[in-house]
Amino acid sequence: MIVAEVNGEAVGWIMLLSQNRMRLSHIGSISIMIKKGYRGIGIGKLLLGKLLAWAEKNPLLEKVCLGVFSTNVKAITLYKKMGFIEVVRKIKECKLSEHEYVDDILTYKFI
Asked: Are 29 and 66 in contact (CB under 8 A)?
């Protein structure tokens, strides 16, 4: 896990998990979170860049993946710029309220 801090306050984090199963051990799953008020100023790009640099040096990893809500346009734009491609779109995967849904997009990057 990599944590981003501003004046001693944790404002974001990123981590990569991989499977122990041999068939899936070459894939890393990325989770990232940036605190509201600190989004859109490059923290996500910095964290993702550092994590990808580490992952590229790891001889066991060949592919990384991450999921993103279809409404998170800024994150989707960043992920595309960093080489991720959309592979699956799960329609109405997440229910936000009684009549509000959002698609979940799965992206991959080969490293």
From this structure: yes
Q: What is the DSSP letter of 42?
A: S
Contacts for 85 with CB less than 8 Å, ≥ 6 apart: 107, 108, 109
Model confidence over 80-98: pLDDT tens digits?
999 999 999 999 999 999 9
What domains can you pick out in the chain, each with its CATH number?
2-110 (3.40.630.30)
Question: What's the pTM?
Answer: 0.91
DSSP string, 16-29: EEE-SSGGGTTEEE
DSSP code at position 61: -
Q: What is the DSSP letter of 80?
A: H
pLDDT in the model for residue 62: 97
Which alpha helices (H) appear in the chain, and where do they start and end? Answer: 43-57, 73-81
pLDDT confidence of residue 77: 97
For residue 20, what pLDDT is reported? 86
